Amino acid sequence: MIKALVVTATALILASPALAQDIPRKFRDDRKDLTNSLEALKDATALTNSFSARPDREASESEERKLQKLLKKGLKSGRKVDDAFLDYLHPQLRYYFKEVYLQSQQLFLEGYKEGDLQKQVQALTLQRQWNAFWRSNADGIVRRAYP
After folding, report:
1. Cβ of 122: how many Cβ atoms within 10 Å?
2. Per-residue pLDDT tens for 7-17?
3. Distance from C-alpha of 105 to C-alpha of 111, rounded to nearest angstrom
4. Residue 26 carries which DSSP code?
5. In sequence order, what are the residues at sequence separation of 6 or more whose Cβ sits closer than 8 angstroms to the Cβ of residue 108?
6. CB–CB of 83/94 below 8 Å?
7. What's the confidence (pLDDT) of residue 60?
8. pLDDT tens for residues 11-41?
9. Mean per-residue pLDDT for 72-76?
10. pLDDT recorded at residue 21
């Protein structure tokens, strides 16, 4: 069952292949994993928002499976991102991405699967912390990731 919780995700702007040469070679896979993570979690958020927009009906089983698949994909890609890459992009990004953002998504997934509103509220609290950090730092991070 869908709970009334809107989780806002943020995505990096996808880079063109021509930009792939502009960061240290050792970080290219990390940039791809970070982008894939944020894109999957952004898509999960859009799907969650579509559920919230139609409170008169519950999500179908296929929609619920799709949501869980997107969340798992985003978490898996995000966990592969090396700390050194996050530090390269911003000195606080490692903490905010792994300890705040990914944790918020993990809590949301668990809360969603278990029907646990407390976990979903914890997820929302962490998501707000991530959003505040991202609003203040996104431009610099994106410029550094995609020079």
Report:
1. 17
2. 333 433 343 34
3. 10
4. G
5. 5, 7, 71, 119, 120, 123, 124, 127
6. yes
7. 85
8. 333 433 444 458 999 999 999 999 999 999 9
9. 97
10. 55
Per-residue DSSP letter, 27: G
C-alpha radius of gyration, the chain, whole number: 16
Q: Classify each residue of 128-140 as buried b or exposed e, where b means 16 or more C-beta atoms within 10 Å of its C-beta.
A: eebbebbeebeee
Helical segments of the chain, H only = 28-52, 61-80, 83-89, 93-94, 102-114, 117-145
3 state DSSP class of 70: helix
What residue spans define the domains of the chain? 26-51+58-145
Q: Which residues of 62-97 are buried (b: 16+ CB within 10 A; e: fewer)?
A: eebeebeebbebbbebbeebeeebbebbbeebbebb
Which pair of structure tokens corresponds to residue 3?
A: 């709970």
Q: What's the token pair of residue 55?
A: 């409170």
Q: Yes or no: say if 81 and 88 are a contact pair by the CB < 8 Å rule.
A: no
Residue the block writes with tokens 């890459």: 85
pLDDT in tens, 54-63: 777 788 889 8
Question: What letter represents residue 53's amino acid?
Answer: A
